[in-house]
Amino acid sequence: MDPTFVVSGVARGAGSLGRHTVGGFAGSAAMLTETAAKNMAVLTLDRKYAQKRDRLMKLKANGGKGVNIVRGFESGVQKLVQGILEGVKGVVSKPIRGAERNGFEGFAKGIGKGLLGLLVKPVIGTTDFLTDTLIGVKGAVESTDSASYLNVHNQIRPRRALYGRDRVIRPYRIDDASAATIQARSCLGGEEYYAHVDMVKKVALMSVNRLLILSEDGEEVLRLHFQQMKKVEVENRDGSCFLVVYLNDPKHDGTDTEEVKCEDEELAKLLCEKLMKVITAI
């Protein structure tokens, strides 16, 4: 055996070990900072901010290129600036919106929420900056070609879905696993997964407590607690299919229904069936 091959192999092995050690440390640190930022987002008491941040959590690839230090740093700086701007903007907008809805009481609450956001949102932006930078470091040292945050963490397939409050284990289904992963990154994160329905241009996610319907670009279409629902029906009007949710209590505008346009009537009926099963069990 040529000794040069042995030396070359040892060198390559040592280099690989070093890269994966650094990459593993960066990946673990990124997971910790992401979790911390997500928990702090809840503390802002700003639901729209938390939802918007959840949709922007993925470090997306550009033109098929992998994640690297430069892209991670750029993404982190963008989120840091956004956190500062959101904090400053909330100081002005929250009291105004509160006053429009509930008068002086709403104005006072709005001031509290605005000041809380001014303190917390820049910290969240800083944490997101660290998270994306660490993801960039991990991608660079491991020479990953991943295009998503899930792939950066070396998940060959989405994590198995655990069903219901008892977290029941069932045979692996890629669609349920993917839906549970999306749910974990949405405003339903932290709630046990129950079911989902792929509605062609939308997806309906059901935790054990709530329904969340997202558009194909991740925008929230409808979010309701099951206890708010009285019944669910599928209606056809003017050649279009609608999922109609009847509410137990009227909304502020006096209406007692929520409607979602559906592209496929059979899928709408499937979702209706799943929802009625949950509602009747409450």
Kindly describe this structure.
There is one protein chain. With 282 residues, the protein is of the alpha+beta class. It is built from six helices and nine strands, in the order H-H-H-H-E-E-H-E-E-E-E-E-E-E-H. The strands form three sheets. A four-stranded antiparallel sheet has the order 3-4-5-6. Strands 7-8-9 form a three-stranded antiparallel sheet, covered by helices on one side. Strands 1-2 form a two-stranded antiparallel sheet. Helix 1 crosses helix 3. The N terminus is likely disordered.
- Whole-number radius of gyration? 23 Å
Question: Structural class, from helix and strand content?
Answer: alpha+beta
Low-pLDDT parts are 1-14, 58-65, 144-155
Strand content: 15-25%
End-to-end gap: 72 Å
Give the number of DSSP strands: 9
Helix content: 40-55%
**Strand line-up of the largest beta sheet:** 3-4-5-6
Q: What is the chains' assembly state?
A: single chain
Shape: globular
